Structure prediction request, 1084 residues.
Amino acid sequence: MLEMSQVTKIYRTELVETHALRSLELHVGAGEFVAVTGPSGSGKTTFLNIAGLLETYSSGIYKLDGEDVSNLSDNQRSKLRNQKIGFIFQSFNLIPDLNLFDNADVPLRYRGMPAAERKRRIEEALGRVGLGSRMKHYPAELSGGQQQRAAIARALAGSPKLLLADEPTGNLDTHMARGVMELLEEINQQGTTIVMVTHDSELAARAQRNVHIVDGMATDLATEPALVRAALGATPYLPS
Amino acid sequence: MEFRPILSTLSRHKTAAALIVLEIAIACAIICNAMFLIGGRITQISEVSGVADEELLRVQLTGIGDDPNPDATTRSDLAVLRALPGVKDATVLNQVPFGRSSWNSGVRIQKDQQRSSLNATVYMSEEGFMGTTGLTLVAGRAFEPGEYVDFSELRKPGVAGEVPVAIITRSMGEALFPGESPVGKSFYSWGENPTRIVGVVDHLVRPNAQGGPPAREHTMIFPLRPTYDVGGNYLVRTDPTRRAEVLAAAIKALRANPPQRIVREDRSMSLSDIRREYHQQSRSMAWLLGAVILALLVVTSLGIIGLASFWVEQRTRQIGVRRALGATRGQILRYFQVENFLLATTGIVLGMLLAFGINQLLMEKYELPRLPWYYLPIGAVVLWVLGQLAVLWPARRAAAVPPAIATRSA
Amino acid sequence: MFSYYCNLALRSFKRNKVLTALMVLAIALGIGASMTTLTVFYVLSGDPMPGRSHTLFHPQLDMEGMNGYLKGEEPQIQLSRFDAETLLREKRGDLQAMMTGGSVSITPQKAELVPFIAEARYTTAEMFPMFQVPMLHGGAWSAADDEAHARVAVISKSLNQKLFGGASSVGKTLRIEDADVTIVGVLDDWRPSPKFYDVFAQRGYGETEDVYLPFSTSRDLKLGRSGNMDCWGDTSGQETDVNAPCAWIQYWVQLDTPEKVDAYRQYLMNYSDQQRAAGRFERPTNIRLRNVMEWLDFHRIVPSDVTMQVYLAFAFLGVCLLNTIGLLLAKFLRRSSELGVRRALGATRNAIFQQCMIEAGAIGIAGGVLGLGLAWLGLWGVRQQPVDYADLAHLNTSMLLATFAIAVTASLLAGLLPAFRAMQITPAMQLKAQ
Prediction:
């Protein structure tokens, strides 16, 4: 699903060159649930930006769902992003003056879907996250956990192949966080590929596979148990 | 106060900064020119007419059919008017100041000059002219009784239209004989023979704006007694407080005086009313310009408030960090005030250049004089003060940002 | 998508009521000022004879003596009576008429009405067909009437209303000064604006006259004249005589084709040569033949204050637009997080651009509506002025449409820069750190 080979990202200013990613190798298969960990400044955010087609990369090859995205125009990337990827942000990023229905509607509008189909998908998605009765409510009226679930519904409404989550429980208390994680697991079991960036070791442990990014390079922790222990500092719970 | 950090911050918001600078520049240019135009109009409106504006009434009438003896009718009218209670004096004229209709003639200094030296308006006067109008002689003398001639005499076929003597205005004297006293000198206007200048009055404006501002008082007075059917103007002098009653009495008296004539009530009013109507256009323009200046100030200050508020919002985190590092509220306030001052100054400098440019255009298209330099600092001060007042509210909001923001993540 | 963006624009307005109101107000003020001055200008500079103005001409001849002659200067604005009557007799145009203005006293037959003064025009028969003057009752007099110095008149609709209650007064008598004339026609509403045929009367935009008389008759009755009289020689008090060296007659000729115009021009030159040979003219041949619009342009009929006001108003609109650009920029950038999210969710740059432009356009429409109200108010103010064009200052359909066109165009132009900046907002991730 997500194939990055030798992907490098260099930020250039007048004086300084920063190598955010150095020949990153990362492969995520369809249906996998991968957690990406790493210290601050390691390049996880850059990785997520590139994976989500939000940024371009300096060299290497990134294939999304088999398609090489190296030479796509901004418009083409926007379209691909809209159709194949769903985003879940740490700070939810729901649009405050739209209700839940209209928030979930946003990506579907850019796809040019007819009204009836949009309605069907949104109702289904909101129902799936347990917010079917709150469609007309505004984000400000909901708890953090509910807002994140609404954001997930927005991500799901378009039936994306890949869900990219950036610290999805970062702004939630433990109880809500558990709820969100259970939801993500459920979604993954139903076939959606999920790549989640987090620095919470417990969360990372719930994923099938962990990838650790340090200094712009990725190490697959599934194949490097020693590193796993060293990186996470505790015995991880790795479901088989 | 350090300018460099302010300038570097501004350079990162070039577009918004440029917008404020441009807005202030254009506002400054328009305001400077508008103030100048208002000044010009006010000068026009408050011009000295030369006659006793507040004491004069004008009654206009026309005859029905042919009057076989207009001289006699006119003399009779004047007698009737002078006998009215409250009337100090009365006269008959071919034209009145601010009356718009005018008689004009070319004036030459040499007899065989090809082109006229200037074009002057002609007031025909009878004996009561000087007393009624209240003109001030500054040189020479008034007409002597023997010098007056009936205008109807001159119009008889075969009679040469000669005017031996005339009184002119100081302005016309300066134009014809710069630096010298015009009294005793002659010019050529009506007829073949020269007209000698016997007196000079201080001011007497033309009935209209013919010839523009330089020729406003190119006026001459001839001792020709007009009849009422030459222009149809009677001028009556009275006390300012009695004008309404005397006007009504005059109209009534003239209506009753045979032969039957039509008194034009819509045109018979006090001279100050005629003057007000004459200057109405200028007055409206001045008000309009004033309204535009006000509107510009309002709009510009709204723009400054809007953009400054936006910047405060954008930089809330920065401001919090500065406060956390020890800046006082006053220093934050001053930061924004200085920033606004820099922008305003740039805008004003640009605006002054633009003001001259606009003035140049106005000079060419509308024949206006050059913008005097002292309008620029006035415009500058107005905009500086406006900018500082406008930025006060957003700047105080900035100063109120708590230092604790620095430690909070986004 | 268009209705979606409109919806989003409305929501955005509701959220930022004050800011939106300020933007709409700024645009409305600018539009109101511009449309008021533009309407006045449009009304004053219009074509008084639409479709025909290029066929109506006013000839000018240089009739003065050599005294004061300067090569290349304009000849006299009006014609002398001699030359006008001669040109009229020689009839070289398709239609032609000579005319001048005056005022006459009218003594009504009804005893309750006192005698009053009416504005008059002394002219010849062909003026009416040439200017296509509409008639309500009866018709104009004929050329034979001109020859015969007939005591006939045509009166205006309002005079007819005043004297005869609006009924057909054809055949009735009108007492002018101390003579009686017979009414042969009553005009319908007629107000060419500007009043091109006599630029000296009433500063160019006044009402048309109430009484029309044959010129020959007016001289017989020694009726008073008004307008400009420019004499260059000794008149011995008889300026209105046929041979007086005075220019006071307006002359209009209709020439339907460009060939006829050239031919007439040649005719005027030949005529000038003839007159010089006969000793009447002294100056070298110097003629002008301007059509209506050229004539109006030459006389700078639109008051300079009016054109200055138009420039001022549009400069003010410019400042309002700069204001709007700044406020729109602030508005859009303030929402950079929302716009970033939309980009992340799949909006292309163009989609964001469109969304912002539609918001700008919506403000333009709102500003246009309010501005229209302000313009209406402004024109009301103009109508209260004591100027002769006061009652002409009205909004018509084309000005109405122009208001919206200008408002929307202006706001779209103002929105270009902010929308362009908005579409540069990078997709979502910037939101993490402010």
In short: The longest strand of chain B covers residues 261-270.
